[in-house]
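Fold Annotation — chain and its backbone
Next Lines — sequence and tokenised fold

***
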Amino acid sequence: MVFTAGQIAGILEGEIQGNPEIAVHKLAKIEEGEKGSLTFLANPKYTPHIYTTKASITIVNKDFIPEQVLSTTLIRVDNAYESFSKILEYYNEVKNNKQGIENPVFISDTVKYEEDVYIGAFAYIGANVVLKKNVKIYPNVFIGDNVTIGDNCTIFPGGKIYSESIIGNNCTIHSGAIVGSDGFGFAPNKDGSFSKIPQTGNVILEDNIDVGAGTTIDRATLGSTIIRKGVKLDNQIQIAHNVEIGENTVIAAQTGIAGSAKIGKNCMIGGQVGIVGHITIGDNVRIQAQSGIGRNVKDNEILQGSPALNYADYNKSYVHFKNLPKIVSEINQSEKKNHFE
């Protein structure tokens, strides 16, 4: 994709200083810019790079005053950082604006889809699937029977959507993610073996949800595993059967959430957090990385540790954790002294 300075300035409502016809076809950091690339300057500490960058076009704030000769064409805007983010979003939209059906694919005769969908090669679309407006199914995606996928959703290569799953509007599911796999349900037998408990529920993703690469969301044993609107899931997260995650909660990579746990809205959960099953975590909770949560958590708590403590209590205790060897040594010396006295 090639854009001229004039086109970019039009998108950003910016002012051009330089050649309006100069074109770019890629994005770059300002210190790594080269001919044909677009970059930006927002942080003053990077200002020296604007005089040496080889980027063809640089987005800058309107109040930027160069102190040396520039070789890059400038586009002046109110906020360079926000404008560059806008260009990134626009670039992604154009880059991913695929339509049509590639071959070979398997699409069941009972599938319902809009004309503007994209279905990539080697995709499998099962019976009674509904694909709404502007859905994009990339190559090697599996979509099971009776799945519904809402408007403007994207399933990247290798995504797997098991049967009965319901996906709302404006959702993105990245490569290798699995939605609707069986929950970990087994009943112990007298002889020490285990019998599988059928997982007959489904997964519901509401609107505006991102599911990271390699993340797994298990179907419910009965009922639904529910991810509420606006939730953002990082890569390689495990969400077990019958879990419910409240709206606008964000969860970092490698977190594991056991069955039937309920997490509130607007929570922030760090990487490698472990959450046991059948507990309730309130709204606006903050959980630091590598914490282990084994109890109910009230609204607005901040937690750290395993088992997790109140964040302020943990920090106070940690001072003593670090000094334990010294404290033990002092106690031993005191005991020896008392013994000889």
Summary: The domain at 3-95 is CATH 3.40.1390.10 (Udp-n-acetylmuramoylalanyl-d-glutamate--2,6- Diaminopimelate Ligase; Chain: A, domain 1). The first helix runs from residue 5 to 12. Helices lie at 5-12, 80-95, 311-340.
